[in-house]
Amino acid sequence: xxxxYDASGFYDEMFHATGRPRAHYARLHRGLRDLAxxxxxxxxxxxxxxxxxxxxxxxxSGAEHTFPFDLLPRxxxxxEWAHLDAGLRQRVRALDMFAADVYGAQACVRDGIVSAxxxxxxxxxxxxxxxxxxxxxxxxxxAGIDLVRGDDxxxxxxxxxxxxxxxxxxxxxxRAFMRRIFSEAFDRHNIQPVDHAPQMLREALAASAPEGxxxxxxxxxxxxxxxxxxxxxxxxxxxxxxxLVEGHDLVVRNRRVYVVTTAGRMPxxxxxxxxxxxxxxxxxxxxxxxxxxxxxxxxxxxxxxxxCNAVGVxxxxxxxxxxxxxxxxxxxxxxEPILAQVPTYRPDRAADMELVLxxxxxxxxxxxxxxxxxxxxxxxxxxxAERDDFARRVRQNPRGYIAQETIALSRAPVFLDGRFQPRHxxxxxxxxxxxxxxxxxxxxTRVALKEGSLVVNSSQGGGSKDTWALAPAQVTPSGxxxxxxxxxxxx
Amino acid sequence: xxxxxxxxxxxxxxxxxxAENVGRMLEVTHALAxxxxxxxxxxxxxxxxxxxxxxxxxxxxxxxxxxxxxxVWFLTFSDLNPNSLRACVSRARENARGVRDALxxxxxxxxxxxxxxxxxxxxxxxxxDGVFQLCLDVRRGLRLxxxxxxxxxxxxxxxxxxxxxxxxxxxxxxxxxLEARWRVSGVMSLEGAREVPPAEWRAxxxxxxxxxxxxxxxxxxxxxxxxxxxxxxxxRFPRSVTYALQRVEDSLLELEACGASGRGATGRDMxxxxxxxxxxxxxxxxxxxxxxxxxxxxxxxxxxGAQIAACFFDYPHDDPTGHDRQRPQAARQAxx
Lengths: 491, 336
Description:
The complex is a heterodimer. Chain A is of the alpha+beta class. Chain A has two domains: 15-337 and 408-490, no CATH class; 343-405, Dna Ligase, domain 1, CATH 3.30.1490.270. Helices cover 29% and strands 24% of the residues of chain A. Chain A has 13 helices and 25 strands. In chain A, the strands form seven sheets. Chain A has a five-stranded mixed sheet. In chain A, strand 20 and strand 21 (419-428) form a beta hairpin. The longest helix of chain A is centred in the first third of the chain and has 25 residues, at 78-102. By secondary structure, chain B is an all-alpha fold. Chain B folds into two domains: 11-153, no CATH class; 154-315, no CATH class. Chain B has helices spanning 3-35, 43-53, 56-62, 68-76, 85-97, 105-120, 123-152, 157-184, 190-193, 198-206, 211-217, 224-233, 241-257, 268-279, 287-312, 322-332. In chain B, helix 8 (157-184) runs antiparallel to helix 15 (287-312). Chain B is globular, with a radius of gyration of 20 Å.
């Protein structure tokens, strides 16, 4: 299965050299080595059928697609996971305090950690949030932090997603399908479970309820079936046991939000919203929004409902402010940052501008308000015309762009066209924050299915892998039983 | 339970029941057409089938005459017919998709599979494999949905809203089916009715019942009286008007009891009244009186449906353009 696999050229997640698997992959490698590709392909097809049968799809360009799934899991050894877990908790704790400070005392501005101009020009900044103090000053209930690993094997934060990160449902569902289709592979791996992730989110939301509310009524506010992530909204609502609502299911009376039931109106205490700030309330924000609830922000200000994540929290995942996050961690927590970052340049600083224009062919240039892999120039893969275009845009709007060193993303084997081929991957772990920050073990490994591509986003042909964060007690290296059971299952 | 969710469940069930009825109608009509020989197959066989779906006017706008080709196409896959088999299944799935968190995963999965099964049928496959195979596929898919509902769902408000949609649609269709056959056959009197060939009576009743049940319920020759008794009045026959209205009444009672209804009358009194009226019919009416009865039943079902909507589904529906505006805005929400 791996005889023709070339692990050279990039950091490979599974092999430290061609033909030589890393220790935490040894067991899977032995199990798979002698397996007929047709058996593996059969399993891969069945798992894709499961996704189709359950209608687990995302909408893209007007059609429903399944999210391509690769059957070979991504394995993270216990020591690495412990490091990531601590670093992610630290980061989200600091970002949450930063948000509270931005819309509160702004001590970090006074002390010169983040410039006032950077905050007020951030696309995620909302003036209206200054009047708001969310329950227990919690601003981030669910964050998705994108991590990458370069040639040196070092994990780095690529970007933070503190508004409406998606993908948690796939973490849970991928694992459930893996268990059904490829149970042999789980043998003696000591994988940390992820099934409780929706429950973790529920706890974070419940902990963020308005003060004095013991048994909060929680709802998930979705833009509806036409949204790309609608499946995820329905899945999370069902798994958390909370009501899935659209804007027109809610009404505001006397600064209280109610959900309209067949028996009349029932009050609601916490709304986990998956719609953008600008659409949550047509009275406060965009008047043409049909997705939000007129008067919702008034209830938020009155403290009768917790809107999660809080309005205005987008300021913390601003791609320019990203550069300041290590200082933000030091300032608010008085700790050294545990996780490394990607070296990043800000063209709104004169020195950086020169460097960015000069090195356009080796950097990645991103629009600060871009997402989903759009609005981005990957220098080494760009044409002269594209570089000229971006240089002009950066000069016109320095605050609108950042540039980062190109990370040669690590690769992992992906089963394509009947054999394993190396493809670039990243990792999005999910952090819940109610009482304390908690990380779902593992996360969503995203795969760039196109050969050589660095773009892993699902809207651009990305796929995913089940991600195994291993618990400390390690595997005993013997693959014989594993191979035997797989052969039987395939026969 | 959310008013919007209740309404979507109700329409999911109504559309599934409609698909069921179209499928049954198609199957028995097709069998009848085969029996009656190639030369005569045409309007007298296929028109009642279309009449029974209530879309005759729409059919005439697009087709000159009802024959195997035009009628089958119209009833199965035609984009012009909002009540085609495919349209009903797809609408049921769309309604369910908007409330999939309120349905057990197996139910949604079965519904999704049914939609995919129907979507895979093409005109050429229909020509090759035949109407019977399509109808079988649909029936099996529907049974899996219903079986999953039966096995998995709590008997709570959600279940009762599915019941309301399913059985109100069934009551209304049973009445329309009988009336259509009556009218198209040109039989307005009891004397005339006896001239209807037995095969056609079998087809009429057969759209609602399997042959063995039919023989058990009505041994010997199937008379018009027996057909009316079975399709309208029989309390044991699951596709009769009486049986369906009983289920509607039961579910409304349960919804009232569990506090799911907040505003005004649920429509249960109206259902009870119709049911009472039906128990007083013995012997069953014939001729013009029967047409009047069947017509009245359909009107009553419409009124009951309107009352249910007013009582349970009264939430701030957006203005008519709201739905059109929701789509682009919803698609635009970043899910990073």
